[in-house]
Amino acid sequence: MSDRVLAYHLIITAYGFWIPNDPRGSWSDFVRAWELFHAGGKATKIEDHRSVAHDPHDRAKRLETKKHMVRKAVRFTGLQARAIANGFADYVCRSGCVVHACAIMPDHVHFVVERFRYPIERVARQLKAAATTSLFDGNLHPFQNEQYADRRAPSPWARGEWSVFLGTDRDTLRAIKYTNDNPTRDGMKAQHWKFCTPFRA
Question: The whole model's pTM is what?
Protein backbone atom coordinates (compact mmCIF):
# COMPACT_ATOMS: atom_id res chain seq x y z
CA MET A 1 0.00 0.00 0.00
CA SER A 2 1.31 3.45 -0.86
CA ASP A 3 2.50 5.70 1.98
CA ARG A 4 0.50 8.48 0.31
CA VAL A 5 -2.83 6.95 1.30
CA LEU A 6 -4.41 9.25 3.89
CA ALA A 7 -7.90 7.77 3.97
CA TYR A 8 -10.41 5.67 2.05
CA HIS A 9 -13.82 6.25 0.56
CA LEU A 10 -15.37 2.95 1.60
CA ILE A 11 -18.72 1.62 0.41
CA ILE A 12 -20.37 -1.49 1.83
CA THR A 13 -23.62 -2.72 0.34
CA ALA A 14 -26.66 -4.57 1.61
CA TYR A 15 -27.59 -7.98 0.26
CA GLY A 16 -29.09 -7.66 -3.21
CA PHE A 17 -27.77 -4.15 -3.92
CA TRP A 18 -25.57 -5.39 -6.77
CA ILE A 19 -26.01 -8.87 -8.20
CA PRO A 20 -22.95 -10.84 -9.43
CA ASN A 21 -24.31 -11.05 -12.99
CA ASP A 22 -25.35 -7.40 -13.23
CA PRO A 23 -25.21 -6.39 -16.93
CA ARG A 24 -23.03 -3.38 -16.04
CA GLY A 25 -20.40 -5.68 -14.57
CA SER A 26 -19.51 -6.80 -11.06
CA TRP A 27 -16.50 -7.79 -9.01
CA SER A 28 -17.80 -11.33 -8.46
CA ASP A 29 -16.04 -14.39 -9.86
CA PHE A 30 -19.12 -16.58 -9.92
CA VAL A 31 -22.84 -16.74 -9.14
CA ARG A 32 -23.53 -18.80 -6.01
CA ALA A 33 -27.30 -19.19 -6.35
CA TRP A 34 -28.56 -21.48 -9.12
CA GLU A 35 -31.79 -19.48 -9.52
CA LEU A 36 -29.83 -16.28 -10.13
CA PHE A 37 -27.45 -18.01 -12.54
CA HIS A 38 -30.35 -19.55 -14.46
CA ALA A 39 -32.07 -16.16 -14.77
CA GLY A 40 -29.08 -13.98 -15.60
CA GLY A 41 -26.14 -16.15 -16.60
CA LYS A 42 -22.58 -16.24 -15.32
CA ALA A 43 -20.85 -13.55 -13.28
CA THR A 44 -19.96 -10.38 -15.18
CA LYS A 45 -16.59 -9.82 -13.49
CA ILE A 46 -14.71 -6.65 -14.39
CA GLU A 47 -11.32 -5.41 -13.21
CA ASP A 48 -12.10 -1.70 -13.56
CA HIS A 49 -12.63 -0.04 -10.17
CA ARG A 50 -14.38 3.03 -11.52
CA SER A 51 -18.08 3.28 -10.79
CA VAL A 52 -20.22 1.64 -13.48
CA ALA A 53 -23.50 2.50 -11.74
CA HIS A 54 -24.56 4.92 -14.47
CA ASP A 55 -23.33 2.89 -17.46
CA PRO A 56 -25.98 2.14 -20.12
CA HIS A 57 -27.47 -1.33 -19.68
CA ASP A 58 -30.64 -3.38 -19.99
CA ARG A 59 -32.36 -2.16 -16.82
CA ALA A 60 -35.45 -4.33 -17.34
CA LYS A 61 -33.29 -7.46 -17.57
CA ARG A 62 -31.38 -6.47 -14.41
CA LEU A 63 -34.59 -5.96 -12.42
CA GLU A 64 -36.09 -9.19 -13.75
CA THR A 65 -32.96 -11.12 -12.81
CA LYS A 66 -33.00 -9.67 -9.27
CA LYS A 67 -36.42 -11.27 -8.75
CA HIS A 68 -34.67 -14.65 -8.74
CA MET A 69 -32.38 -13.99 -5.79
CA VAL A 70 -32.57 -16.51 -2.96
CA ARG A 71 -33.84 -13.78 -0.62
CA LYS A 72 -35.46 -10.43 -1.08
CA ALA A 73 -33.00 -7.58 -1.44
CA VAL A 74 -32.38 -5.80 1.88
CA ARG A 75 -33.60 -2.25 2.36
CA PHE A 76 -32.90 -0.90 5.82
CA THR A 77 -35.60 1.01 7.71
CA GLY A 78 -34.88 4.03 9.87
CA LEU A 79 -34.84 1.85 13.00
CA GLN A 80 -32.42 -0.56 11.39
CA ALA A 81 -30.20 2.34 10.26
CA ARG A 82 -29.99 3.56 13.85
CA ALA A 83 -29.05 0.07 15.07
CA ILE A 84 -26.41 -0.12 12.35
CA ALA A 85 -25.03 3.25 13.46
CA ASN A 86 -24.85 1.97 17.04
CA GLY A 87 -22.82 -0.99 15.82
CA PHE A 88 -20.47 1.28 13.89
CA ALA A 89 -20.08 3.52 16.95
CA ASP A 90 -19.19 0.51 19.10
CA TYR A 91 -16.54 -0.62 16.63
CA VAL A 92 -15.03 2.87 16.31
CA CYS A 93 -14.85 3.19 20.11
CA ARG A 94 -13.29 -0.24 20.62
CA SER A 95 -10.81 -0.14 17.75
CA GLY A 96 -9.74 3.50 17.60
CA CYS A 97 -10.57 3.60 13.89
CA VAL A 98 -11.22 7.20 12.77
CA VAL A 99 -14.29 7.80 10.60
CA HIS A 100 -14.60 11.27 9.09
CA ALA A 101 -17.99 10.79 7.41
CA CYS A 102 -20.73 8.18 7.22
CA ALA A 103 -24.01 8.00 5.31
CA ILE A 104 -26.30 5.04 6.00
CA MET A 105 -28.55 4.63 2.99
CA PRO A 106 -31.39 2.10 2.62
CA ASP A 107 -29.22 -0.37 0.69
CA HIS A 108 -25.60 0.74 1.14
CA VAL A 109 -23.29 2.74 3.39
CA HIS A 110 -20.65 5.34 2.52
CA PHE A 111 -17.69 6.04 4.81
CA VAL A 112 -14.58 8.14 4.74
CA VAL A 113 -12.15 6.24 6.94
CA GLU A 114 -8.69 7.45 7.96
CA ARG A 115 -5.87 5.06 7.11
CA PHE A 116 -5.74 2.51 9.92
CA ARG A 117 -3.42 -0.18 11.22
CA TYR A 118 -5.58 -2.82 9.52
CA PRO A 119 -6.16 -3.15 5.76
CA ILE A 120 -9.39 -1.46 4.67
CA GLU A 121 -10.86 -4.86 3.73
CA ARG A 122 -10.55 -5.97 7.36
CA VAL A 123 -12.05 -2.70 8.61
CA ALA A 124 -15.03 -3.24 6.27
CA ARG A 125 -15.58 -6.78 7.57
CA GLN A 126 -15.43 -5.62 11.18
CA LEU A 127 -17.80 -2.72 10.58
CA LYS A 128 -20.30 -5.11 8.99
CA ALA A 129 -19.93 -7.59 11.86
CA ALA A 130 -20.51 -4.88 14.49
CA ALA A 131 -23.58 -3.59 12.65
CA THR A 132 -24.97 -7.11 12.28
CA THR A 133 -24.54 -7.79 16.01
CA SER A 134 -26.38 -4.56 16.80
CA LEU A 135 -29.23 -5.53 14.47
CA PHE A 136 -29.55 -8.89 16.23
CA ASP A 137 -29.46 -7.29 19.66
CA GLY A 138 -32.35 -5.05 18.70
CA ASN A 139 -34.34 -7.88 17.04
CA LEU A 140 -34.02 -5.92 13.79
CA HIS A 141 -31.93 -8.26 11.66
CA PRO A 142 -33.74 -8.59 8.29
CA PHE A 143 -33.07 -12.35 8.16
CA GLN A 144 -33.31 -13.21 11.87
CA ASN A 145 -36.17 -15.64 11.20
CA GLU A 146 -34.25 -17.48 8.46
CA GLN A 147 -31.50 -19.03 10.55
CA TYR A 148 -29.36 -21.92 9.36
CA ALA A 149 -29.05 -25.17 11.32
CA ASP A 150 -26.15 -23.70 13.33
CA ARG A 151 -28.40 -20.74 14.32
CA ARG A 152 -26.51 -18.25 12.17
CA ALA A 153 -28.66 -16.02 10.00
CA PRO A 154 -27.80 -15.08 6.42
CA SER A 155 -25.81 -11.88 6.32
CA PRO A 156 -27.72 -8.68 5.53
CA TRP A 157 -24.56 -7.49 3.73
CA ALA A 158 -23.13 -8.29 0.33
CA ARG A 159 -19.72 -9.91 0.18
CA GLY A 160 -16.71 -7.66 -0.14
CA GLU A 161 -16.55 -3.89 -0.32
CA TRP A 162 -15.58 -1.08 -2.67
CA SER A 163 -12.86 1.34 -1.63
CA VAL A 164 -11.00 4.24 -3.19
CA PHE A 165 -7.61 5.37 -1.90
CA LEU A 166 -7.53 9.05 -0.96
CA GLY A 167 -4.02 10.46 -1.22
CA THR A 168 -4.48 14.19 -0.64
CA ASP A 169 -6.42 16.50 1.65
CA ARG A 170 -8.39 17.66 -1.36
CA ASP A 171 -9.39 14.10 -2.29
CA THR A 172 -10.42 13.43 1.31
CA LEU A 173 -12.48 16.60 1.61
CA ARG A 174 -14.23 15.84 -1.68
CA ALA A 175 -15.10 12.32 -0.49
CA ILE A 176 -16.39 13.70 2.83
CA LYS A 177 -18.64 16.16 1.04
CA TYR A 178 -19.92 13.47 -1.33
CA THR A 179 -20.67 11.17 1.62
CA ASN A 180 -22.35 13.85 3.72
CA ASP A 181 -24.46 15.02 0.77
CA ASN A 182 -25.63 11.50 -0.12
CA PRO A 183 -28.77 11.35 2.05
CA THR A 184 -30.13 14.75 1.00
CA ARG A 185 -29.44 13.97 -2.67
CA ASP A 186 -31.80 11.01 -2.25
CA GLY A 187 -34.47 13.05 -0.44
CA MET A 188 -33.52 11.91 3.05
CA LYS A 189 -32.61 14.02 6.07
CA ALA A 190 -28.98 14.98 6.61
CA GLN A 191 -27.15 12.57 8.91
CA HIS A 192 -24.88 13.54 11.81
CA TRP A 193 -23.28 10.60 13.59
CA LYS A 194 -21.41 11.13 16.87
CA PHE A 195 -18.79 8.53 15.98
CA CYS A 196 -17.51 10.73 13.12
CA THR A 197 -14.44 12.88 13.76
CA PRO A 198 -14.03 16.15 11.81
CA PHE A 199 -11.19 16.07 9.29
CA ARG A 200 -8.31 18.43 9.97
CA ALA A 201 -6.56 19.30 6.72
Answer: 0.79
